[in-house]
Write a structure and sequence with these properties.
A 14-stranded mixed β-sheet has the order 1-2-3-4-5-6-7-8-9-10-11-12-13-14, covered by helices on one side. Helix content is 20%, strand content 14%. It has twelve helices and 14 strands. The model is unreliable at 1-9 (pLDDT under 50). The chain has a domain at 174-344: Ribonuclease Inhibitor (Leucine-rich repeat, LRR (right-handed beta-alpha superhelix)).
Length: 344
């Protein structure tokens, strides 16, 4: 999609005028091949341009499908304006000061396919009571509820969302009791359970979710080596995030059957050289993070046959530069990172 350029738009006058006004106010615009606006992205506070008057301009964009308001300061009342845009497919409301009352407006967007919230900053206070409104959005494929006060009570209200493919629930009140409900989303491909109370018992409930390709268990403190026995039975997994999960070599051995795995994060686990012997058999891996683990030079030989590998992270380990250089000769297609860089 192209960025809007004044005077180069084949769109209808109302669309072009509204788009120009939004750009002048600081919003970022993406257009389709005909010059019609498809996405409007409002900047986050303090440079917030998502005022009521600017939001009203969206009504003059007949093909707008995506509105990003993350961090913009948008309130419950202002969402009433958004609720009138029937063409919307994607709405990003992360870190906006919203309550459950806002969801009565969101529920009117019957064509919505992706809806994102996050309460990490504390601004969003949506909880279980609001899930009844979200449940009305039958076309939802993507739902983000990270850092909200959502438990099995709220998830029970959402089980009718049969088209849901992605569900993110990081640092929510989700626990093992909720997993039998999550197993009822038949199309789910991506599930984020980071920083939740999920354990082996809960994971056993989702083993039969054969469409699941992406599972994030990072910082889930109740996950043990034993729990990974259930993960090892999820044979369609392509991505697995175990960052800061208390698992080691015994847990790694449970993953041997994940032949489709392409992306694996074992950063800040206790995996060592013995575990690498199993990881080295995951031949489809393109990304592998072993930072802050117990691996050493002795274990690197186990990775020599990972010919699909494009990126290997070995920061904060006992691996020497010489051993990393030797592995680089065997895996010339892979970028091997040995030096720690903050933020990477």
């Amino acid at each position: 999609m192209a960025a809007l350029q004044a005077g180069q738009c084949a769109a209808e006058p109302n669309d072009a005028t509204a788009a120009a006004s939004l750009v002048a106010a600081g919003a970022l615009i993406q257009t389709d091949a005909d010059g019609f606006v498809r996405e409007v992205r409002f900047p986050a506070a303090p440079a917030n341009t998502a005022t009521a008057s600017n939001l009203q301009l969206l009504a003059d964009l007949p093909r707008v499908r995506s509105v990003v308001l993350a961090g913009s300061g948008t309130t419950d009342a202002e969402l009433e304006i958004i609720s009138q845009i029937g063409t919307l497919r994607n709405l990003d409301l992360r870190e906006c000061p919203l309550t459950n009352a806002a969801l009565s407006h969101v529920a009117l967007l019957s064509n919505l396919e992706a809806l994102r919230f996050s309460g990490k900053s504390g601004a969003t206070t949506i909880d279980d009571a609001g899930m009844q409104q979200i449940a009305k959005l039958k076309k939802l494929r993507v739902l983000m509820l990270d850092y909200l006060w959502v438990s099995e009570v709220g998830i029970a209200k959402l089980v009718g969302l049969e088209q849901l493919e992605e569900l993110t629930l990081a640092q929510t009140l989700i626990n093992d009791d909720c997993m039998v409900l999550i197993a009822r989303f038949p199309q789910l491909r991506k599930l984020r359970l980071a920083r939740t109370g999920i354990s082996a018992s809960g994971l056993s409930q989702i083993v039969a979710m054969h469409r699941l390709e992406d599972l994030d268990l990072s910082e889930a403190a109740q996950i043990s080596d034993k729990a990974l026995a259930h993960v090892g039975r999820m044979r369609e997994l392509k991505r697995l995030n175990l960052w800061r999960v208390p698992v080691g070599d015994a847990g790694a051995s449970q993953l041997a059957g994940l032949a489709n795995l392409e992306w694996l994060n074992l950063d800040n686990t206790t995996i060592g050289d013995k575990g690498l012997a199993v990881v080295g058999g995951l031949k489809k891996l393109t990304f592998l993070h072993l930072g802050s683990t117990a691996v050493s030079d002795a274990g690197l030989a186990s990775l020599a046959e990972l010919t699909a590998l494009k990126e290997l992270v070995l920061t904060r380990t006992a691996v020497s530069a010489a051993a990393a250089a030797q592995l680089a000769k065997q895996l010339p297609q892979a970028q091997i990172r040995l030096d720690f860089v903050a933020g990477q």
